[in-house]
Amino acid sequence: MTVARPRLEALVDEYGLKPTAVDRLDALLELLASDPTAPTTVVAPRQGADVHIADSLVGLTVERVREARRIADLGAGAGLPGLVLALALPSAQVDLVESVGKKCDFMTRAAARMDLANARAVHARAEAWPEGLGVHDLVTARALAPLTALVEYAAPLLEMGGTLCAWKGARDPVEEADGSAAADATGLALREVVAVRPWEGVEARHLYLYEKVAPTPDRFPRREGMARKRPITAPA
Length: 236
Known about the structure:
CATH topology: Rossmann fold
Order of helices and strands: HHHHEHEHEEHEHEEH
Structural class: alpha/beta
Strand order of the largest sheet: 3-2-1-4-5-7-6
Largest sheet: 7 strands, mixed
């Protein structure tokens, strides 16, 4: 049991999760604190309860997230928000997409520690995962890449009407314009930018919600790395 348990109990109550979720979230924080291979710099349970757990759960304020059936969490790293969403949404299947094998190994251990049957680590890049094309109604991404790259990664993986939910900090007009240009090119449209406050004292935090409104052109996904090396940008 970690010192973060009272905070976890408050979060479980706030988001209407089953009381048993406290033990399972606490198990994740214990693993993050004790496993030297945990792929995060935030390992103290008190801090992790906010930075990892509360920040993941805030996605549940979005209806499209709450109703998701199949989720792809891109660049999942330590499994956040994917593992937490898998716990909160037991009827959803969550694919934790990560290109680094050691991180996938960690997430597999974490899913087992949390007793999650609906979350699996997928060792792949988003651009090179043919099995994932067009089958997800929700793609999530947290602390991964600029909006233009996130949109390009997500679009081919989403079914029509599906949603990209991207966790971001302070709003950046240039990044937003590039994200809109990428959305226009890939069949997505920005629907909403939601200001959220997952914990007291957090700096600017936003959820960007894009909907797939048209088929993604066959030229996407581009080759691995191209979304970052040659990003789609708004006209100067």
